[in-house]
């Protein structure tokens, strides 16, 4: 197994890099999108609320792979040429943003109504109150579930392998089918994924416990 | 885009069989992973030295791996050590391994949410540990767990689409077969399978949020 890792070191490392890069881009994009849709969902404007919940329900209830395939196959055919990595990362961002929107909305709802009323009666506008009073508390409350979403995001980034996204899973298949050492290859790949997800997962559990007290 | 051609009777029948495969594989996996997840969750909660520690570590490892990797492992890895698997058995095995690890965490959290006084009360009334678990703790815990379980089942249904890569003839796989014959069928196919997945998952999601509201009050 060690020899396999040694002789395919650069292949694994390329995949590891693509997985990390895609996860970080998708995290940033889905945090931004998720926050926007969460704010729309709690806004007082009914059409905006409807738009937000339609978006969230659509992406929460369709498999990530279907979303990704649409961006990989359909979008280049009719709109703009994009490569597998980009298509996969876009799919990942949109899919995850729906879950993050729900998480942040729950965070906003967990902040008491009195906070908004207090901020408004101190002369803040709605936007100011959201920006300086509600959202910081909402994010803090939502931190453990957001962390779990990030872990899911890293794991889900393996769909990039369906669209030639050069991620860890894609490279693992390359190694597995060129060396025929299937089990050792997938064990090494698993360890690479665990390096990313395991510490995060334990940290989130720790955070949940300390926040309960 | 050729909707009329894409939605011909023969294509629809072919796709509907895929819908049934998706439903069937999901249903079998849900039942099996619920049973195994329940047992694992109780073992993990029990804090029997070593056993719950080792089981807990294995569960954590599985939960933190991509399902796709587990799917490849069962489909390509098991034959390498002499276990023959088809795409249906490999898909169900991978889904059950992954989802029962996820469900065991939900179960453990559910049991922990029950006040320890319940166990003490049951035990001091002469019940054994197993009796107390079976009659007192688990029924209350399952009650609390239902919303989380349902949303886990939603993601299980969505995850069956990954099995298309190991040639499980489910919805996405069959849609790909249909549009590979005629590329103008591509958009109609993705549209209709998206709708089909949406119908199953949305119904389950709505049930989950309805139940969580009912139990919250």
TrEMBL record, chain A:
<dbReference type="InterPro" id="IPR043429">
    <property type="entry name" value="ArtM/GltK/GlnP/TcyL/YhdX-like"/>
</dbReference>
<protein>
    <submittedName>
        <fullName>Glutamine ABC transporter permease protein</fullName>
    </submittedName>
</protein>
<dbReference type="InterPro" id="IPR000515">
    <property type="entry name" value="MetI-like"/>
</dbReference>
<feature type="transmembrane region" description="Helical">
    <location>
        <begin position="61"/>
        <end position="79"/>
    </location>
</feature>
<keyword id="KW-0029">Amino-acid transport</keyword>
<dbReference type="InterPro" id="IPR010065">
    <property type="entry name" value="AA_ABC_transptr_permease_3TM"/>
</dbReference>
<dbReference type="GO" id="GO:0022857">
    <property type="term" value="F:transmembrane transporter activity"/>
</dbReference>
<keyword id="KW-0472">Membrane</keyword>
<comment type="similarity">
    <text>Belongs to the binding-protein-dependent transport system permease family.</text>
</comment>
<keyword id="KW-1133">Transmembrane helix</keyword>
<keyword id="KW-0813">Transport</keyword>
<feature type="transmembrane region" description="Helical">
    <location>
        <begin position="20"/>
        <end position="40"/>
    </location>
</feature>
<dbReference type="InterPro" id="IPR035906">
    <property type="entry name" value="MetI-like_sf"/>
</dbReference>
<feature type="transmembrane region" description="Helical">
    <location>
        <begin position="183"/>
        <end position="203"/>
    </location>
</feature>
<keyword id="KW-1003">Cell membrane</keyword>
<dbReference type="GO" id="GO:0043190">
    <property type="term" value="C:ATP-binding cassette (ABC) transporter complex"/>
</dbReference>
<dbReference type="Pfam" id="PF00528">
    <property type="entry name" value="BPD_transp_1"/>
</dbReference>
<feature type="domain" description="ABC transmembrane type-1">
    <location>
        <begin position="16"/>
        <end position="204"/>
    </location>
</feature>
<dbReference type="GO" id="GO:0006865">
    <property type="term" value="P:amino acid transport"/>
</dbReference>
<keyword id="KW-0812">Transmembrane</keyword>
TrEMBL record, chain B:
<keyword id="KW-0812">Transmembrane</keyword>
<keyword id="KW-0813">Transport</keyword>
<comment type="similarity">
    <text>Belongs to the binding-protein-dependent transport system permease family.</text>
</comment>
<feature type="transmembrane region" description="Helical">
    <location>
        <begin position="20"/>
        <end position="43"/>
    </location>
</feature>
<keyword id="KW-0029">Amino-acid transport</keyword>
<dbReference type="Pfam" id="PF00528">
    <property type="entry name" value="BPD_transp_1"/>
</dbReference>
<feature type="transmembrane region" description="Helical">
    <location>
        <begin position="50"/>
        <end position="75"/>
    </location>
</feature>
<dbReference type="InterPro" id="IPR000515">
    <property type="entry name" value="MetI-like"/>
</dbReference>
<dbReference type="GO" id="GO:0043190">
    <property type="term" value="C:ATP-binding cassette (ABC) transporter complex"/>
</dbReference>
<keyword id="KW-1133">Transmembrane helix</keyword>
<protein>
    <submittedName>
        <fullName>Glutamine ABC transporter permease protein</fullName>
    </submittedName>
</protein>
<dbReference type="InterPro" id="IPR035906">
    <property type="entry name" value="MetI-like_sf"/>
</dbReference>
<feature type="domain" description="ABC transmembrane type-1">
    <location>
        <begin position="19"/>
        <end position="208"/>
    </location>
</feature>
<feature type="transmembrane region" description="Helical">
    <location>
        <begin position="185"/>
        <end position="204"/>
    </location>
</feature>
<keyword id="KW-0472">Membrane</keyword>
<dbReference type="GO" id="GO:0022857">
    <property type="term" value="F:transmembrane transporter activity"/>
</dbReference>
<dbReference type="GO" id="GO:0006865">
    <property type="term" value="P:amino acid transport"/>
</dbReference>
<dbReference type="InterPro" id="IPR043429">
    <property type="entry name" value="ArtM/GltK/GlnP/TcyL/YhdX-like"/>
</dbReference>
<keyword id="KW-1003">Cell membrane</keyword>
<dbReference type="InterPro" id="IPR010065">
    <property type="entry name" value="AA_ABC_transptr_permease_3TM"/>
</dbReference>
<feature type="transmembrane region" description="Helical">
    <location>
        <begin position="81"/>
        <end position="98"/>
    </location>
</feature>
């Amino acid at each position: 197994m060690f020899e396999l890792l040694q002789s395919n070191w650069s292949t694994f490392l390329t995949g590891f890099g693509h997985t990390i890069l895609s996860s970080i881009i998708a995290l940033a994009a889905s945090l931004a999108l998720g926050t926007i849709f969460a704010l729309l969902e709690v806004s007082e404007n009914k059409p905006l609320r409807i738009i937000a919940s339609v978006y969230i329900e659509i992406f929460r209830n369709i498999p990530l792979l279907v979303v990704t395939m649409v961006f990989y196959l359909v979008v280049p055919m009719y709109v703009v040429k994009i490569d597998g990595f980009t298509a996969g990362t876009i799919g990942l961002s949109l899919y995850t943003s729906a879950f993050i929107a729900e998480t942040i909305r729950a965070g906003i709802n967990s902040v008491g109504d009195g906070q908004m009323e207090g901020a408004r009666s101190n002369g803040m506008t709605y936007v100011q109150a959201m920006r300086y009073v509600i959202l910081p508390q909402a994010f803090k409350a939502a931190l453990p579930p957001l962390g779990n979403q990030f872990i899911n995001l890293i794991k889900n980034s393996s769909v990039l392998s369906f669209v030639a996204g050069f991620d860890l899973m894609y490279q693992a298949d390359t190694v597995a089918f060129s060396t025929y050492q299937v089990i050792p290859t997938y064990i090494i790949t698993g360890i690479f994924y665990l390096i990313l997800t395991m510490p995060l997962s334990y940290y989130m559990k720790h955070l949940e416990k300390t926040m309960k007290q | 885009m050729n909707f009329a051609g894409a939605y011909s009777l023969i294509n629809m029948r072919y796709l509907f069989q895929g819908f049934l495969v998706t439903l069937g594989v999901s249903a079998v996996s849900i039942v099996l992973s619920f049973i195994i997840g329940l047992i694992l969750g109780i073992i993990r909660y029990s804090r029997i030295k070593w056993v719950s520690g080792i089981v807990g570590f294995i569960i954590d490892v599985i939960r933190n791996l991509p399902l796709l990797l587990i799917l490849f492992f069962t489909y390509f890895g098991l034959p390498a050590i002499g276990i023959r698997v088809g795409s249906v058995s490999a898909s169900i095995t991978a889904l059950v391994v992954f989802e029962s690890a996820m469900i065991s965490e939900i179960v453990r959290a559910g049991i922990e949410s029950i006040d320890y006084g319940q166990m003490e009360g049951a035990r001091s009334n002469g019940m054994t540990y197993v009796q107390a678990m079976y009659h007192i703790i688990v029924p209350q815990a399952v009650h609390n767990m239902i919303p989380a379980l349902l949303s886990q089942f939603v993601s299980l249904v969505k995850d069956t689409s990954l099995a298309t890569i190991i040639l499980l003839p489910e919805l996405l796989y069959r849609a790909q077969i249909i549009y590979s014959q005629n590329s103008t069928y591509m958009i109609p196919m993705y549209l209709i399978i998206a709708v089909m997945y949406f119908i199953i998952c949305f119904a389950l999601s709505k049930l989950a949020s309805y139940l969580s509201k009912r139990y919250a009050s």
